[in-house]
Structure formats: structure tokens, C-alpha cells
Amino acid sequence: MPVALTFAQAKAQAGERPPLKLVVPYAAGGSTDHVARLLQKPLGELLKQPVIVENKPGAAGTMGTDYVAKASPDGNTILFGNQGPNALVPSIRKTPYDALKDLRPLTTIAFMPLVLTVSAEKGPRTLQALMEQARQPDGRVNYGSSGIGSLAHLTGFEFSRRGKLDMLHVPYQGGSLAAAGLLQGDIRCSFVTAIEAGALVQSGKMRFIGVAARQRMPSLPDVPAIAEELPGFESVLWFAAFAPKGTRDAEAKRLRDALVKAVESPEFRKYLADHYAEARASTPEELTQLVKQDMQHWGGVARTAKISM
């Protein structure tokens, strides 16, 4: 009597692939998750394979990253990450994976300068006003972030250090809670991605007062670059795709080719441009160099700040 085939076996015999798991190492709703879901449909069409966005949050993004590092290298699981678990956290503490050895880089996806944001009702009206307040003897400014060791935390520390400002870090368990603290007046400012705070700015509840970029963003021409006050100041969140170590060259090429086509599509590029970001693909070698650069730069900032996690 023939043995009944499982659903997965039947699909394999029919030449069909199981769904591709696009693992986001954060909870749903954040900027990383948002951009991943923008790629879900076009990526599936290009690969001719269902794509599922799977959120695996925890431990500053390292749980989901470790999950992919230990996943089967069969081309059906990739990480949609950023420099948090791929460069920042490994620079601060030991992680259960080696970010440079246990993941195969595929391509960058997008770049978003962080934006200094205040409450429209309770915050200062300009970057200069905030900086002047933080330089007064009794003018300490509380700034929030999505957590200790996050890019927003390190950016705020570097902004304070370079500007000779008196600022106190207030960590939250996620960007949405930091935004709530900002609106309630518990913190004075916060570095966020414009895609996260855009709706609140458009509704008049928040205000952008500075962009952590070397020049003003074309989509925010009236918001000064912080580099106008602190030359060379820059903090850019990037998103990128990685496969498990051991993924075969043919599989890595298949995935990367589809990702690059999705990133370079006019629709994706326009959407990100409209939301204060840049869609940009890279070679695997360029992505590796980017990870190393951020490990060196932000690792140095973390050591200066004496941050531990």
C-alpha cells in the first residue's frame, strides 16, 4: 500500500518551493517590519514563491538574527535586519552568533537618516533652541530611545557629546513607547526614523527639528541637517538581507537577484522617497564592509559611553 505524501513532500515532488520566510527580528509595526512587508508581494512575484514575513522579536533583535544564523541553508529563510543586531549589539556584548561569519550577506535594501523629533505642543521649535537649552546650567534635556544600545541611544549620546550638551538618556521598550513619552512630555526629544513618526508629524502632534545627515533631505527641505551645527554628524539606519551561512551560491544568487529587482523597482523607490528614505541595493561585499564600518564606529561610541547590555 503506497505511503501517503505529506503536503510539503507533494509540493517538493511537484517542483514547488515552500514559502520563503523573511524573518524580521523585531515586533510588527516598526520601521524594519514596515519595509519588509513592502517587499513581500514583489519579492514573491519575482521568486515565483510565497513569501511570509515572520516576526521574531527579542533581545534587541538578536533572537531573530540567531534563528536565521542557525536555520537550514536551503534558500527558504532569510533575515531582514539592520545594524542593530548585525553591528551594534555585537560591538557591545557577546551574541550567540558571529555576525560576520554565521550569516551570508545578500544586499542592502534601504537607508534612512534618523530625525530629531519633538512634541509639537511641548517641544522647542528649532534645533538651535534645543541645543541652547541643553547648554544652560539647569537646562538638562531628557531624550528617549527604543532601548539601551539602540542606534537612537548611541546617536543621542554622540549628539550630546559632540554638541557639549547636558542630556539624559531615557530608554523605552520600543519606539512606540518612546513616542508616547514624547507626546506626554516625559522626554524632550528623540531620534527616530521619519517613517515611524511621519504620521504624527503630518497630524501636527510632533515636529522634526533636525536630520542626522550631512545635508538636508530633499523630502524635508525645511528641516536643517544637524551637520550644519556639528560638521560631519551623521546617523543612518540601514536595512539589509542576509541568508544563513552555508547557503549555496546558486541559492544566494537567486535570492539576491530578486531582492535587487524589487529594491530597484520604481514603485518601491518612490514609496521610500515619499517616506524620507532611499532604496539602495549593494553587492554582498559592500554590505560586509558596511557592517564592519558600523561595528568600528558605533562600537567606539558605545565604549566611550560605557554602554553595557
What's a concise summary of this model?
With 309 residues, this protein is an alpha/beta fold. It has 11 helices and 10 strands.
Q: What report would you give on this structure?
A:
The structure is a single chain. Strand 1 (20-24), helix 2 and strand 2 form a beta-alpha-beta unit. Helix content is 41%, strand content 21%. Helix 2 packs across helix 9, helix 4 crosses helix 11 (284-305) and helix 6 (151-163) packs across helix 11. The protein has eleven helices and ten strands. 44% of the residues are buried. It is globular and about 65 Å long. Strands 1, 2, 3, 4, 5, 6, 7, 8, 9 and 10 form a ten-stranded mixed beta sheet that branches. The chain folds into two domains: 7-112 and 237-305, D-Maltodextrin-Binding Protein, domain 2 (3-Layer(aba) Sandwich), CATH 3.40.190.150; 113-228, 3-Layer(aba) Sandwich (D-Maltodextrin-Binding Protein, domain 2). It has 309 residues and is α/β, with parallel strands linked by helices.
